[in-house]
Write a structure and sequence with these properties.
Number of strands of chain B: 0
Helix content of chain A: over 70%
Number of strands of chain A: 0
Radius of gyration of chain A: 15 Å
Distance between the termini of chain B: 22 Å
Number of helices of chain A: 4
Largest sheet of chain B: none
Largest sheet of chain A: none
Order of helices and strands of chain B: HHHHH
Distance between the termini of chain A: 8 Å
Strand content of chain A: under 5%
Largest interface: A-B, 21 and 23 residues
Number of helices of chain B: 5
Structural class of chain A: mainly alpha
Order of helices and strands of chain A: HHHH
Strand content of chain B: under 5%
Oligomer: heterodimer
Structural class of chain B: mainly alpha
Chain lengths: 117, 176
């Protein structure tokens, strides 16, 4: 597990906790929950840029490269889709949808780490 | 959910299409429209608002990951365990059908949802039991193996929650 994973672990967990909390408190998606999901997207982008740099500088992915990139690209699409959906229906339930992004991202980051090393 | 729902049949309402700005009964704390607006929403034969959205989102994630996993298994190592990988592919199809049908409005899609979710429940129970009692011969490489333990038992929980949701949002009986 490298730093990229731990960044996503922390950001993802915080985002999930925040969104679940907001959902339990019957709040609609607000700046805080949407920004927390945006932070997950940002940390995934950092992972993407970092990985491109590492591959470009000659590091090799131990597992299947296309599997790794597949996971990363899919993970990058999740926050965007969830936020889009949260804007379409602004109820407390959309906060639970947003909450799912954080945990999903961290599970996928764990898998990406396994593939890389 | 009361029995006062009217059957609006094939009322158009794809995922998200009906929901922009319309309140649901769960929109507590949200500025809501008039009572007639709420009644109109309740009368629609849809399952894609409120908790249903979360359900669809989780189904979509599973559809995506199961499809990717099954595709990967079949392309790279199909001959190792054809049965398990075909099961993976089957699970993926079930998740896709469940996701799409839950997002659609109307009586027919409701029936499709019920079928897909029931197949999913039976699948996770049968495959889970087989992988448990015949662990040697049954490869542990499907979403449903060991009742979905590799996925935090969500595959076991999902069809149960799905059936509860479908029951709560069942279409009203046809009027004579």
């Amino acid at each position: 597990m490298d730093a990229y994973f731990y960044i996503i672990l922390v950001v993802g967990l915080l985002s999930t906790l925040l969104c679940v909390g907001a959902g339990i408190l019957k709040k609609a998606p607000n700046d805080a929950t949407i920004l927390s999901v945006a932070a997950v997207e940002l940390s995934l982008l950092v992972y993407l840029v970092g990985s491109i740099v590492r591959v470009a500088s000659g590091e090799r992915i131990a597992g299947e490269p296309w599997e790794f990139w597949g996971y990363l690209v899919t993970a990058l699409m999740l926050p965007v889709g969830a936020v889009y959906w949260a804007i379409l229906e602004r109820t407390r339930w959309s906060n639970f949808v947003l909450a799912a992004v954080g945990v999903t991202a961290l599970v996928m980051a764990a898998r990406m780490n396994q593939i890389w090393y | 959910m009361t029995a006062s729902q009217q059957d609006t049949g094939g009322d158009a309402g794809t995922a998200g299409g009906t929901s922009a700005g319309t309140p649901t009964e769960t929109a507590a704390g949200q500025p809501t429209e008039t009572a007639t607006g709420a009644a109109r929403q309740a009368s629609k034969d849809t399952r894609n608002t409120g908790p249903g959205r979360l359900l669809i989102a989780v189904y979509a994630v599973f559809a995506l990951s199961a499809t990717a996993r099954a595709g990967y298994q079949i392309v790279t190592k199909f001959s190792e365990a054809p049965l398990a990988y075909l099961l993976s592919a089957f699970a993926a199809v079930v998740y896709i059908v469940a996701t799409v049908s839950l997002a659609k409005a109307g009586r027919t899609w409701f029936k499709v949802s019920v079928t897909a979710v029931l197949v999913e429940l039976i699948g996770v129970l049968v495959v889970g039991a087989l992988s448990l009692f015949d662990a040697v011969n049954f490869p542990h490489e499907t979403v449903w193996s060991l009742f979905g333990r590799g996925y935090g038992f969500i595959p076991l929980l999902l069809p149960i929650l799905g059936l509860i949701w479908l029951y709560r949002r069942r279409p009203a009986p046809k009027r004579a």
